[in-house]
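Fig. S4 source data, part A: sequence.
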Amino acid sequence: MKINKFPIYPYLLFLLSLIFVISCNSKQQYSDTPTTGSISIAVDETFKPIAQAEIDVFQAIYNSTSIKPSYDNENLAFKKLLNDSVRMIICSRKLYQFEKDIFEKKKFYPKEIKIATDAIALIVNPSNKDTIISIDNLKDILNGKITSWKQIYPTSKLGKITLVFDNQNSSTVHYLIDSVSKGDTLSNTLSALNINTDVISYVSKNANAIGIIGTSFVSDRDDSTSLSFLNSIKVMSVSKEHIATYENSFKPYQAYIATKQYPLVRDIYIILSEPRTGLASGFTSFITSDRGQRIILKSGILPATRPVRIINVNNEL
């Protein structure tokens, strides 16, 4: 029987070429390190001031990096994470169990890292003299039981309350439903705008308005004590008690967030699904470092690890 002999050389070339292609693809997929390279991340738009401040400082220190943020509503940010469009998001909640199950099927086990505690601020027009409110009042506004300023403040000269927030898919709305309205349906008279800066603009021009917004958007960044807010609006003091008074109502200052006297608070997380130690991991380490936490401290909210100096202030109402 005759045996055909094929030269091995062409097959060796093919094998080497295949190894080279795989190696090149691997380098393209993992071209970043903790302090070099480029990545895209998704950020809940409510936390844009914090995230952008962190990115600016990080890129100034590590000038071979490029972090490209997409400022989205909460639903879209999580969708991008689940679809592997991004490997890092900054958000206001941990993963739901069904989301963890999706990652587990792909043999991914994301990390959930708390970086700060945020406060949700209630803002009104500078001309409004009524700047204290109870959680019960806020709940009744959300559910449509209270529709006018006179129902809360009988001597008010203002008319119908117009309550505005950023957009219907935002984490702020989810917080209102879960933690304030307690699952009840929100009134169809509430108004969704687009982004947080739209809320500030609307309230600054409309005397009857109440805006719901992340505190970092209204904190005065030039005030090193974090005890003042933008001049274009007033920030309301909120009470846990049934009837709000000057004594039991508090503004979203860092001290009152830390002592939990201000009631509208929630945690901020990084969710990291990076399968290796790359730029997303490096950026996360920076945010949780002393320098990164000091940036959060300056933003007016409460950092997760850095101590906050408690200052006695005259709570101007």
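Fig. S4 source data, part B ends here. The first helix runs from residue 9 to 29.
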